[in-house]
């Protein structure tokens, strides 16, 4: 007898299937992960704050209010194949942030996210159907 997958299980599977080489991997991953948390929960707020922290590394608060976001950072990283490329803050050109600094922060968020998702997934039982 085949059981139906819950919405949460579908999101978990989609997160696992995401290809890290896919354009806008981080935006897709975070959009899916927000669906797993209750908007009033501490995890939801913590995830938002971590993403905002990455955005604040590059953009000023005024630029964020104008609509610049993680999506724009991803576009810049993907469109420039130079490993030595870096971002300069518009309010202080002496501050430079490398692509690796950003990716390191994003990987930390992913590890945090996966640890929370893993805690939820442990309670699930998946079966193989043929």
Notes on the protein architecture:
This protein has 130 residues and is mainly alpha-helical. The mean pLDDT is 83. α3 (42-58) packs antiparallel against α6. The protein has one domain. The radius of gyration is 17 Å and the shape is elongated. It is built from 6 helices and 2 strands, in the order αααααββα.
Secondary structure: elements and pairs:
Elements: H1 7-17, H2 25-34, H3 42-58, H4 61-65, H5 70-79, E1 86-88, E2 96-98, H6 99-121
Antiparallel strand pairs: 1-2
Task: Summarize, please.
By secondary structure, this protein is mainly alpha-helical. Helix content is 58%, strand content 5%.
Q: What are its keywords?
A:
130 residues, 2 strands
Alpha-carbon distance between the two ends: 10 Å
Beta fraction of the residues? under 5%
| Count of domain modules | 1
Helix percent band: 55-70%
